[in-house]
Amino acid sequence: MSRFPVSFWNSYTGGGGGATISSVSEASRGTSDTSFALAAITFTVTAGKAYAFFVKLETNAPNTVTLSGANTGTMTAGQLLTNGALYGRWYYVTSMASSGSTVFTGAASGGLGEYARCWLWEITYTGTLSADVDPSTGTGTATTATSASFTTTGTSEVILAGVANDTGKTYTSPTIAGSAATTGTAYSDAQTYYRILSGTVSSQTAAISYTGSTIYCAPVLGLKAS
C-alpha cells in the first residue's frame, strides 16, 4: 500500500518532466516607416499562452510595448541591441491573462522611431514558462547576422532570434544551435526565426545570412518550460 495520499499522486508531475513547449507560430506582423506606435499589432490572444514581440527600429530606440483591449499592462522587455541608429529588441509575456482581441502598441525613446518592423509570435506550452536566454550583445557588420553565444538550462525551450538591418535584404540559411530554424514572413530589412530545443545546449549561436554586407542587430530570447 502506498504511503502517499491520493492527492499527492493526482498532482505529481515527475519533477517537471511533463513541461513542454508544443508549438510556436507567427501570429501577426506590423510595419510603419514613420512611427513605432503606428506599427501596432492587433491579435485575438488565448489566455495561458505566451507571446513574444520583436521590433526592428531606426533613429530612436524601442522603449515599451503596451497592451490594451482584452489585456492591459506592458510586456517584459528583453535586452536592447544598438548598432549606430539601428535597434533590435524582444519583448514577451509568459502567460496571457485573458482571451480576446489585444492591441500591442510600441513606444520609442525620445521620438517616434522610423522604419518599424514588428512580429508577434504565439507559444503554446505546458507547465510554467520563464526567460532563460537574453544576451546583451550581438551586433556587427557582415553578410551573416550572428547572435551572441548563449547557453540554455531548459530541457524544453524555444529560442527566438531576430535580425535588424538598415538596407533591403533577402534572408537565407537560418540556424539556431547549429541546426536549421523556422523563419517568419520577412520584411526587406528585418526577419525573425525560431527553433524548439528538447535538451540543453552550451556556447551556441543563432545566425542568418543575407545579400550584401551591412550592419545588423541580432538579439535572441530563450523561454523554457519547467
What does this structure look like?
With 226 residues, the chain is mainly β. It has one domain. Helices cover 3% and strands 57% of the residues. The chain contains one helix and 19 strands. It has one helix spanning 6-11, and strands spanning 21-32, 41-45, 50-58, 62-69, 73-74, 76-77, 81-83, 86-93, 100-108, 114-125, 129-133, 139-146, 157-165, 171-176, 179-180, 182-183, 190-197, 206-217, 220-225. The strands form three sheets. Strands 11, 12, 13, 14, 15, 16, 17, 18 and 19 form a nine-stranded antiparallel beta sheet that branches. Strands 1, 3, 6, 7, 8 and 10 form a six-stranded antiparallel beta sheet that branches. A four-stranded antiparallel beta sheet has the order 2-9-4-5, with no helix packed on it. The protein starts with 5 loop residues before the first helix and ends with a strand. The model is unreliable at 1-16 (pLDDT under 50).
